[in-house]
Each structure stands twice: as structure tokens, then as C-alpha cells.
Write a structure and sequence with these properties.
The protein has 12 helices and 9 strands. It is of the alpha/beta class. It has a 6-stranded parallel beta sheet, sandwiched between helices. A 3-stranded antiparallel beta sheet has the order 5-6-7. Helix 3 packs across helix 12 and helix 4 crosses helix 5.
Length: 384
Amino acid sequence: MGNLCTCFARKTVKKRPVTKRLQNQQTGPNSSNRWPRVRSSRKDKLDDALLQEQALAAAIMFREHQQQNLGVSLPFDRSSSLRYPNSCSGSKKAGQLPRSSSSRARSLTDPLLQPHQLVNQDVKLDNLETNHFVLVHGGGFGAWCWYKTIALLEEGGFKATAVDLTGSGIHSFDTNSITSLSQYVKPLTDFLEKLSEGEKVILVGHDFGGACVSYAMELFPFKIAKAVFVAAAMLTNGQSTLDMFPQQVGSNDLMRQAQIFLYANGNDHPPTAIDLDKSLLRDLLFNQSPSKDVALASVSMRPIPFAPALEKLSLSDMKYGSVRRFYVETPEDNATPMVLQESMINSSPPEKVFRLKGADHSPFFSKPQALHKLLVEISKIPSP
């Protein structure tokens, strides 16, 4: 969604020069002593954190040993993320994270956790309305972007299906030839149509995938238990994805710089697709994501079909409105800024709103464990 155009005019994209990081300079007689003190302080903190991690790991191993010897099931409940209701309030200290026993330094905001540590152990999949997640990628992405989410869900006992929309991922169709939203979403609607009678799934849409999820909700409301919008286009009736962006024109210079319009039908016709400048992908979509995932995206992303973004959705209260909706905000998002996310939420309030602290536009890369935890939490929310 954030990848879509904010204007129609063609332009030549100029690549921005690589920004060089400034080196620390000595500005006074005392400057040479500052850096060693900072390094020493950081080292002490890392040593303390390592000791805490090792102690917790030893405690976990001891507890498991006790359970095996005594045959007693003892709960070990540690949460990996903060959940934000509509008021977006909550204690930051609630649900602190278990630490890894590895000596390798990890991000303190999203540490690597095993599924049995990440998910509450009292989750009983048989008690859920459905344990099947269907993951819908955003514009330019493909099923490949969900690889971390798929692994975490499956290791936790859930079922995960990621689809490639038409002209995306490994789907061979030419993006420039896509002329409607129904054509673009066909792999998803075909999948839903083939579900067994009475079988339900949880749809998770990212970016432009939110519009695709909404389209599917209108067609198959009885096959969708819940819909989760992750930094996604959550439209209202009669609205197109492009309708959401007039407020961004002139304000999101990075977005406009990154867009490259493709004119497969000639320059005197509307664009057929939008490509993104590979040199700006990190700043626009992956500003908090690991380098290896940025590299994966740079060789895997494909152009975004233009016609589906122009199409206005027809959404009814009886069908689309009957499906429970949840929104996941991404505060560090440079493609779909928080002001736009909040505008969509206010225009069509979902049942609950969650916030992934520190997440960029691609939380399946930047915050995979925290995103996984939220998806599991959403699957556990009972019917009102």
C-alpha cells in the first residue's frame, strides 16, 4: 500500500548518494578519554545482561529437569510483546522477554526466542475457532516475505499458508497485464473457494494486501474467522487504495523518489505498473530490518500492478462488516506513516488495535517474533 503511487506524472528517479557515517572527532583535551569510558560502560552492561541470560537459561533447564523427574507440568508463562487495545495504552514492563542463552549479541527489542518460550504454553489449538493462518503479501512482495512467520507458526503447531498473488513472487503472470483487482486477487479467492465446508481461516494482509483481504472478506465472509491488517490498506466502501494518498502528496518525498512508473501500453496511456528504486528500498520499507532480509527483498520484489490500486471496493456491512477485524500498527514505518494508519483506523475502527514497537513497514522482517506473538494472541481472542 505504502508502495503505491501518490501522483500520475512520470519522472526520472535520481538515486540519492550514499550517506557516510560521521566519525567521532576529538574537539578538546578531554575528548580522547570519553570514548573508552563509554565502551567500558557498554561492556559492563553486556556482561551483566549475559550473566542474566545464562542464569535464566540455567533456571529453565533446571525446571525442565524437575518436570521430567517428577512428572509434573509446571507453567512457564512469559510474553514477547506488548498488546495495545484501542486506547493504545499499556505497561511497557508487562510481559518482559525471556533471554537467549547464546553468547552472541542480540537486539534487546526483539530477541531470538524458541516457539515454546514465545507462545504461552496454555494455548490449546483444539479450543481455537481456527488454527489456520492465510498470509497475504503487499504490493511488490510475494509469499517469500512471510518465511519467518511461517516457520514460527508451524513450530507452534499452527497451520500457515502464504499465497502469491497474480504476477507476484513465483507467479509467472506479467504484472503489466493485470487489469483488475479480481484478477490480481484470484490466487487468494481460488484458495478460499476450495476450503472444505465449515472450514475457516484467519486472513493476514500486509500493505496493499489489506485491500485484497477486504475484497475476499466481501466474497467469503463465512470462511474467514478474523482479518488482521498489518500496516495495511484498510479501506471503506467505495474507496480505492489510491484514494488514501492525497494527504501524502508532497509530504512523503522518499516515496515519490522511489517510485518508477512503467508504461507497457505506451507513454500516452496510464501506467501499467510501479517499480521501486532498489537503492531506496532499505530507507523506505526496511529501515529497521536485518541486512540479509533487505538483500532477499532486493532480488525478489517485482513491480506492483497499477490498475488494482485504482479500483474502488464495494464493501457491505452484511458481508465484509460481519468479519472481525484487527489492526497492527508499525510506528517506524516510512512507507505507510502512522498518521495514515491512524486515519484508516479512525475511518473504520477495527475490533482492536495493536502496536509493534520499533517495527518498520515490514515487521515480518524487523519484528518477526513480536508479530508472531500478536497473531497467536489474536487467534485466542474469543467471540464477544
